[in-house]
Amino acid sequence: MANIGDIEMSAEGFDAVIFDCDGTLVHSMPSHFEAWCEALSLHGAGGIFKEDVFYAMGGRPTKDIVVEINDEYGLKLDPEKVAFSKREAFLRKLDQLELIDEVAEFAESLRGKKPMAIATGGTRLVIEKTLQAVGVSDLFEEVVTADDVKIGKPAPDIFLKAAKLLGVAPEKCLVLEDAPAGVMAAQLAGMSVISIPAPIRMVRKQEV
């Protein structure tokens, strides 16, 4: 697994590049955390989701996280209802989103040279709105979301589907990821990974 110092690499030796979205391409994790807090509070579970736990669970589908929260705290939250509330809260924060410059510039440098895809644990509606908000909807040939596979990250399904849609063998794909679940998923798919470290993905640009 490579690190952020390799972000300017030419991607030679790879036939396609696959990007996670939240926390990798887009500065959106703080907004997602705020949305989680609002949704859980709305459903009577405010204050239970700590920020470090949230980041550790990054990349996983919302409903899966609700199930884990239920197990951890002995709650009976409805995954569908909480996921809906969290989605609506996040969509109200689209104006807060920013590209992560290093990753976005890397993607732009590959435009027209190598096929690229988004492979994310987010839902299609939210990811499409996110990409539109930061102006990169036209940069990727394929977008694969949690809606497109039966099992989300850390299973490899999302990355394997992205590779299949791009028509590229998994071992010829380079992945950029920030979350442990996503890194594991890419590795299980047999892909090479550049890991985006926390200082890059967690801090808004104006706060650096």
Q: What is this entry, summarized?
A:
This protein is an alpha/beta fold. Helices cover 42% and strands 12% of the residues. It has helices spanning 29-42, 51-56, 62-73, 79-91, 101-109, 124-133, 157-166, 180-188, 198-201, and strands at 16-19, 26-27, 98-99, 116-119, 142-144, 173-177, 192-195.
Helices and strands, with pairings:
Blueprint: E1 16-19, E2 26-27, H1 29-42, H2 51-56, H3 62-73, H4 79-91, E3 98-99, H5 101-109, E4 116-119, H6 124-133, E5 142-144, H7 157-166, E6 173-177, H8 180-188, E7 192-195, H9 198-201
Parallel strand pairs: 1-4, 1-6, 4-5, 6-7
Antiparallel strand pairs: 2-3
Helix pairs in contact: 1-4, 3-4
Encode the helix/strand succession as letters: EEHHHHEHEHEHEHEH
Largest sheet: 5 strands, parallel
**Roughly how much helix do the residues carry, as a percent range?**
40-55%
| Strand arrangement across the biggest beta sheet | 5-4-1-6-7
What average pLDDT do the residues reach? 89
Q: Please compute the radius of gyration using only Cα atoms.
A: 16 Å
Question: How many structural domains can be distinguished in the coordinates?
Answer: 2
Work out the number of β strands. Answer: 7
Q: Specify the number of helices.
A: 9
In the predicted model, the low-confidence regions spanning at least 5 consecutive residues are: 199-208
What does the overall shape look like? globular
Task: Kindly provide the name of the CATH class of the largest domain.
Answer: Alpha Beta
Give the strand content: 5-15%
Structural class: alpha/beta
CATH architecture of the largest domain: 3-Layer(aba) Sandwich
CATH topology of the largest domain: Rossmann fold
CATH superfamily of the largest domain: HAD superfamily/HAD-like
Ends: how far apart? 25 Å
Protein name: HAD family phosphatase
Organism: Luteolibacter rhizosphaerae
